[in-house]
């Protein structure tokens, strides 16, 4: 019995049994079809709005499996997606009727504490890395949700609580083991395939499949000063105006964000506030605790907070603090902007939309950037948003599919209202599946350089199920002679 599977040309072909059996026999991991045990688990990703059914899923367990699957995809001209942690908002880990290369079982993390280097497999999550590195009092800048995949985070740039002090996740990448579009295993670093290395540092999954990463580690913690300050939404304008004075003057060891949402039933909040609109300041100071207490004192003393739960805590624990609010299985729709400052007009937009949140799980998340992120230039890597000081993630999140229209509409309307105050750039990892037109904005002045890199490393556009950088022309394998076609 053959399997019907989609090709790069968009048509479906019947993949014969002998081809499937040959692939299955060459893998150290498992090959799944729709009838296999574990198929539904493998195709299910973080965002429940993405419900797709691949024809084949190859669950890789080592780099050789990755190379084998890429060669198979290339030889059969298959529509191919790559799953790391499966956390990407656009759902690019999986495509209907295509071939999914699944790295989620490849989660090993090896720490060389002497050299301060961590080698991380392509399916590892933030929790895997933090757990291994914090055993040595070390860390590399990652994101804010421990279930996020390291691969997607890094390839799109990656920022979190340590980034103002230590740079992006991709800035701390020192080498990568890559399977290119030809199925060859190569290494990329500043000294080996340097152009490819630059493209991996923010260029997404456009240039190959990374089977393992090597990161620079830094002394962090193991205790940091971190926590939340909760204010009523009625006080939001005054608090944010104070924040816009406080944040730019804060040292790089401090990252301070704010979130506007309805209060979850947190144990430190009075029950009377559960379900009511609030503004939450979230702060993490990764330097000396006594210094942090002094630096955060003005922020903690301002206004009339409902709760203040800032205190010393393990860095690894702080990295999981938002996990209960970001569990998998919910419906999610994001819109995002970058900003240079926090204007009165932008504050008005945020407070207006925060008063009409479409769901109790929906939120407006505002992140502080700057610091070490700004010290590199656009030409240093694919990441091109170095001037941005802040970012908003308009995070629509809900459970009931019947609320899809209302929640998506709210997010789009907030996005439109905030646009006049933005830089026009955007973080590529926050692009949803309907924002292909914004990919160029994500890469800005780097886009044409990345197109040239795509021409060199993936001219057939095998790696296209992503926020795609389109090659100038690509060779589409067909039954006859290959044909070179311009990108539509």
Characterise this structure.
The protein contains 14 helices and 23 strands. The longest helix has 15 residues, at 404-418. Strand 1 (3-6) and strand 2 form a beta hairpin. It has 488 residues and is α+β, with helices and mostly antiparallel strands. Helix 11 runs antiparallel to helix 12. The strands form six sheets. Strands 14, 15, 16, 17, 18, 19, 20 and 21 form an eight-stranded antiparallel sheet that branches. A five-stranded antiparallel sheet has the order 7-8-12-10-11.
- Count every helix, treating DSSP H or I runs of 4 or more residues as helices: 14
Mean pLDDT: 95
N- and C-termini, Cα separation: 35 Å
Rg over alpha carbons: 23 Å
Structural class: alpha+beta
Tell the overall outline: globular
* Number of DSSP strand runs: 23
Strand content: 25-35%
Helix content: 25-40%
Largest sheet descriptor: 8 strands, antiparallel
List low-pLDDT spans: 476-488
Please sum up the structure shown.
The protein has 14 helices and 23 strands. It has helices spanning 17-26, 39-43, 63-75, 126-134, 150-156, 163-166, 194-200, 236-249, 289-301, 315-318, 344-354, 404-418, 439-443, 447-457; strands at 3-6, 12-15, 30-32, 56-59, 80-83, 99-102, 109-112, 117-121, 138-139, 173-179, 185-189, 209-216, 218-219, 223-232, 254-262, 277-285, 307-308, 311-314, 331-339, 363-368, 390-398, 473-476, 483-486. Strands 14, 15, 16, 17, 18, 19, 20 and 21 form an eight-stranded antiparallel beta sheet that branches. A five-stranded antiparallel beta sheet has the order 7-8-12-10-11. A four-stranded mixed beta sheet has the order 3-4-6-5.
């Amino acid at each position: 019995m053959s399997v019907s599977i989609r090709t790069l040309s968009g048509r479906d072909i019947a993949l014969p049994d002998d081809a499937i059996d040959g692939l299955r026999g060459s893998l150290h991991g498992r090959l799944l079809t729709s009838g296999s045990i574990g198929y539904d688990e493998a195709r299910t990703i973080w965002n429940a709005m993405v419900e797709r059914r691949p024809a084949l899923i190859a669950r890789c367990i080592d780099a050789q499996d990755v190379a084998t699957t890429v060669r198979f995809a290339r030889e059969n001209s298959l529509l191919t997606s790559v799953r790391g942690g499966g956390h990407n908002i656009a759902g690019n880990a999986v495509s209907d009727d295509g071939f999914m290369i699944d790295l989620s079982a490849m989660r090993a993390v090896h720490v060389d504490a002497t050299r301060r280097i961590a080698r991380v497999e392509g399916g590892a999550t933030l929790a895997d890395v933090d757990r291994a590195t914090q055993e040595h009092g070390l860390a590399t800048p990652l994101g804010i949700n421990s279930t996020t995949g390291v691969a997607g985070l890094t390839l799109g740039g990656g920022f979190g609580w340590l980034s103002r002090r230590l740079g992006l996740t991709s800035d701390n990448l020192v080498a990568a083991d890559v399977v290119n579009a030809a199925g060859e295993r190569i290494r990329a670093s500043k000294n080996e395939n340097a152009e490819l290395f630059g493209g991996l540092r923010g260029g997404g999954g456009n240039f190959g499949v990374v089977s393992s990463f090597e990161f620079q580690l830094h002394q962090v913690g193991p205790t940091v000063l971190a926590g939340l300050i909760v204010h009523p939404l009625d006080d939001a304008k005054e608090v944010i105006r104070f924040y816009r004075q406080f944040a730019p003057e804060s040292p790089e060891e401090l990252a301070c964000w704010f979130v506007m949402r309805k209060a979850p039933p947190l144990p430190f909040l009075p029950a009377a506030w559960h379900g009511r609109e609030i503004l939450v300041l979230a702060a993490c100071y990764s330097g000396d605790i006594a210094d942090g207490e002094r630096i955060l004192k003005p922020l903690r003393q301002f206004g009339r907070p409902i709760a203040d739960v800032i205190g010393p805590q393990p860095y690894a624990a702080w990295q999981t603090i938002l996990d209960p609010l970001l569990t998998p299985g919910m419906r999610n729709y994001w819109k995002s902007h970058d900003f240079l400052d926090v204007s009165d007009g932008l504050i008005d937009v945020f407070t207006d939309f925060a008063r009409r949140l479409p769901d109790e799980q929906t939120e407006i998340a505002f992140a502080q950037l700057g610091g070490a992120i700004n010290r590199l230039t656009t030409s240093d890597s694919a990441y091109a948003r170095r001037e941005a000081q802040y970012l908003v993630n308009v995070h629509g999140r809900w459970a009931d599919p019947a609320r899809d229209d209302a929640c998506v509409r709210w997010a789009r309307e907030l996005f439109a209202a905030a646009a006049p105050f933005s830089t026009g750039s955007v973080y590529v990892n926050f692009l949803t599946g309907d924002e292909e037109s914004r990919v160029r904005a994500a890469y800005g002045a780097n886009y044409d350089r990345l197109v040239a890199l795509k021409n060199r490393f993936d001219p057939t556009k095998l790696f296209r199920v992503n926020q795609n950088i389109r090659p100038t022309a690509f060779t589409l394998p067909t039954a006859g002679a290959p044909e070179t076609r311009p990108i539509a």
